[in-house]
Amino acid sequence: MKVRLTDVTLRDGSHTVRHRFTVDDVVAVTTALADAGVPVVEISHGDGLGGSSLTYGFSLVDERELLEAAAPILRERGSKLAVLLIPGIGVATDLEAAAAIGATVARVATHCTEADIAEQHIARARALGFEAVGFLMMAHMVGPKELAEQAKIHEAAGAQVVYCTDSAGALMPSTVAERISALREALHPDTIIGFHAHNNLGLGVANTIKAIEEGARHVDASTRGLGAGAGNCATEVFVAVCDKLGWETGIDVMAIANAAEDVVAPIPDRLPSIDRSSLILGWAGVYSSFLLHAQRASARYGVSEADILLELARRRVVGGQEDMILDVAIELAARQGAGA
Amino acid sequence: MRVAILGTGNIGTDLLEKLRRSDVLDVVMFAGVDPESPGLARARSYGVATSTDGVEAVLGLDPPADLVYEATSAAAHRANAPRFADAGLKALDLTPAKVGPPVVPAVSIDVAFGASNLNLTTCGGQATVPMVAAVSSAAEVEYAEIVSTVASLSAGPGTRQNIDEFTRTTASALETIGGAARGKAIIILNPADPPILMRNTVMCIVPGDADREAVAAAIARMAARVQGYVPGYRIAAGPEFDEVEGGRLKVSVFLEVTGAGDFLPPYAGNLDIMTAAAVAVGEQLAAEREPVAP
């Protein structure tokens, strides 16, 4: 069986370094990944093209510069360059700039119930010659049937691949299986199904394996799991597991293990781990990117990080609502003050 | 002043409810194309003249309306706008067509007196531009960023299929009307059930030595001004002042907009702020036409 891996170290992993990847980081990581045989490398601000902002964090280096640095390296080695776009944050014209630089895979992400806001972007991506991928985030918040209905909207708009995206790392092998098989049943046989994991409950690799068993053929992973919350499914671990299962990823186990250890691991101040807050993200079902924002809000307003995250879960806040983290922290601080 | 409403859907009907309370605006025509529209039945029950002849009914009014509210769709308004102009009719557009200049009643009402076609920019713009303008009045705003979060149920197909228009139009209003050197707008749809109230976060970067008290006072004054025509407009938190890179200051204001619940549900503050702004523009135009005798 063949599985296509998209490495998201330089996109989801952007959260881990607070969107401060340098051109040197990108050149080193891209070279190591492509040399190891990674077929697709995604590069964007953690919150997608146009995500550089006060709300999500400003990029140290403009993502276009990072894309320009990576494009020739990937082209020479026969790997593809992918970008992420979240409608409402970035705009369709951001895709034009990415296409001009040499990106060939466009992943358009929406909350799992709002697929229709991506129709124009998916259509634009196809018109620009991209391989278009629909990305249904926070997939734990709806049942398999509703997720499949939304996937059909991305498919009808022109997406050749539709992802079940576990942004909160809240799915378990059984709930992954239900969703992937619902997508498999609802979508055209030629439409490829993808899966994106977060490791908040320690299930990143296991859930990804389960998704493939149920019919997913494209999956996301990142070296050393660099990514929001407790990070993603770790590329090097996943590749080793696939090798033992006899599944072909086209990626060399030792080369990717070396890339993860020697090139990627030294970059961030801290590597993602399943600490208390990351565990809460997965357990309560909160968008993984909220982690570091909640840490800062906790320090600024003197309220517990856990209380902030649990309150956000209670309010059923969705991806992109990072501004509500401050709002909740201010409110919790006021309540604490009133109670004191 | 004689006003006509074109479009009998949710927005047109909510607007009708608000205009009925106005002492100076008189709805002389409520026109659409759908005979089954619940809004039409409602208007008839109020004794308002109605028609299913759409734009023709508005163009055929004699004497003509002094102001036409267009609450149809962007495509319809693009088609109707030249006809209104030819007939010498002033139009206030609640669709995203952007034929004329944008107006935010609390900030830029002057533009309404000169132009024959006006638009209300976006719901996010109506909510956030006044705050940016308030900060601008007290300090130089180098960058303004807003996040508008609305209930999924309150985002119609017009918004959904052209979400880039929202971010672009709003960002541009932050600059041209709000006075920010650079603006960025983000919109998020939240499907929570029960639906969430419209939330807006406004952040401005100002010089580190900006007068915090003056900024806070300007924000409070502006909030009161918007509340004058949008009663459900509320500062939920802030202004918060944080020192950021380069010794500058970030000013953050968190807004909540509850709808008046006239025809649209109260959670749809994003739609209520549009119809409320439309009424406010009409009333200020009426006041300009007939100045109160000294």
Write a compact overview of the structure shown.
Chain A is built from 14 helices and eight strands.
Q: Report the CATH superfamily of the largest domain in chain A.
A: Aldolase class I
Number of helices of chain B: 11
Question: Largest sheet of chain A, described in full?
Answer: 8 strands, parallel, barrel
The poorly predicted ranges of chain B are none
Helix-strand pattern of chain A, N to C?
Answer: EHHEHEHEHEHEHEHEHHHHHH
Report the mean per-residue pLDDT of chain A as an integer: 97
What is the number of E strands of chain B?
11
Count of distinct strands of chain A: 8
CATH architecture assignment of the largest domain in chain A: Alpha-Beta Barrel
Give the DSSP E fraction of chain A (strand runs of 2 or more residues): 5-15%
Query: Which sequence of strands runs across the widest sheet of chain B?
Result: 3-2-1-4-5-6
CATH class of the largest domain in chain A: Alpha Beta
**Average pLDDT across residues of chain B?**
93
Q: Helix and strand succession of chain B?
A: EHEHEHEHEHHEHEHHEEHEEH
Shape of chain B: globular
How would you describe this protein?
The complex is a heterodimer of chains A (340) and B (294). Chain A is α/β, with parallel strands linked by helices. Chain A has 2 domains: 4-264, TIM Barrel (Alpha-Beta Barrel), CATH 3.20.20.70; 289-339, Helicase, Ruva Protein, domain 3, CATH 1.10.8. Chain A contains 14 helices and 8 strands. The termini of chain A are far apart. The model of chain A has no long low-confidence stretch (mean pLDDT 97). With 294 residues, chain B is an alpha/beta fold. Chain B is 40% helix and 24% strand. Chain B has helices spanning 10-20, 38-45, 55-59, 74-86, 105-108, 110-114, 123-138, 157-160, 163-176, 212-227, 269-289; strands spanning 2-6, 26-31, 50-51, 67-70, 91-93, 117-119, 143-151, 183-190, 198-206, 233-244, 248-257. In chain B, the strands form 2 sheets. Chain B has a 6-stranded parallel sheet, with helices on both faces. In chain B, strands 8-7-9-11-10 form a 5-stranded mixed sheet. In chain B, helix 1 (10-20) packs across helix 11, helix 7 packs parallel to helix 9 (163-176) and helix 7 runs antiparallel to helix 10. Chain B is globular, with a radius of gyration of 19 Å. Classes of the chains: A alpha/beta (340), B alpha/beta (294). At the A-B interface, helix 5 and helix 14 of A face strand 7, helix 9, strand 8, strand 9 and strand 10 of B.
